[in-house]
Amino acid sequence: MAQPASAVQPAQLQRSLGLWVAVAIVIGTVIGSGIFLVPKNMINAVGSPQLVFAVWIFGGFLSLAGALTYAELSAAMPEAGGEYAYLREAYGPMWAFIYGWTQMWVAKSGSIATLATAFFAYLANFFPQLETKLAVIPIPMIGELQISNGQLVAMIVILVLGAVNYFGVRFGGGVQVSVTIVKVALIAAIIVVGITFPAGSLSNFSTSTKAAGGVAGFFAALVAALWAYDGWNNVAMVSSEIRDPQRNLPRALILGTIAVIAIYILANVAYFFVLSASEVSTTDRVAAEMMRRIFGSSGAAAVSLAAMISIFAALNGSILTGARVPYAMARDGLFFSPIAKVHPRFCTPSNSILVLTVWASLLVLSGGYEQLFTYVIFSSWILYGMATASVIVLRHKRPDMKRPYLTIGYPVVPVLFVLVAIALLISTLQNSPAESLKGIGIILAGLPFYVYWRKRLFAASPTP
Question: What percentage of the chain exceeds 90 in pLDDT?
């Protein structure tokens, strides 16, 4: 006998992802376009390869400190949305909403748009016509909106990957593992080629270039490095779909972050073994220039292909994980209710995936690579710092909470992370005030919507 419609349980997210998918999400989402693009910014900020390595190492240990802290939080609260759940439990629903609002409209969507922008920039090496402008639209009080063939391609890539993740988390996870394996193999090949180049020289590590230097230069380089490291936290967003999350989430966060640190440092060893500091400082695509030095134009083309595959994996991981944040908000009644729907057949937050990818594809039209990543880093690190501090808050607020994993080096590790986050935000505000203030403005713009949804939530609650 069939159950009445009222007795049918709504579809739920399923724990379908194992350890290696979770590790692939960490590695695949972190390693995107940054490692191919940001060394120029870093050397121009600090002036010497030694300081570039110091920034990479510092940024890596900072990311690892965050991963160690998130390992405790994710194991204790393996819920959809990651930081959304941590901020809600530590500080209340308003801060959780602000995080989700920022992720939806700026941080995650902006990161996806930035990656897609970088994807078409590399694709343009093979198809220069992608840079052809299709239209220039004047917008009052803002300026001109320029639309190119490449931007349309970037938008299509976002929407296609949205469709991949719409049709099942296992499908999206399988794509993530496959593409991550390919891209790590390609990057490893680039590293080996660079460090075994007969004409390479250790003396390049002692070269230098004119740079601002000092504390301001260090933090400017750190912003670039942290863009390259950004994404280590993404696996926490999909916590509700990880099998045995109490064990697999801490493992994935720690193993994935350590692997990324090693890959980034080795890649920079290869770059500076082949190129001098001044050569790195004048090339936008350092890996391509290194391979061009070794193999000519075919080497540069190989790097462009590797970068595209790398960016593709990062895009897929960002969409897979990022869509869980607006879903978690809507499930709690703090966002549009249709976003909380789980597809009855595919068991994915289907509406959330659609909304995130459509919005991110529109953001592709909003600005250049550096401008977008400044928005993302500044707005993200306000809430990364708060989320990391929540491990301390919850130790006092919720001492009874089950914690299958405890942060190594507590409380020094999370405190160090929070202090550096504060310093980074101050430096970014000084160096990029316009972009930083726009990020703050978008965060504050969410408060009236929070008040609206909270009122609706209370109005819908049954009167005792």
Answer: 62
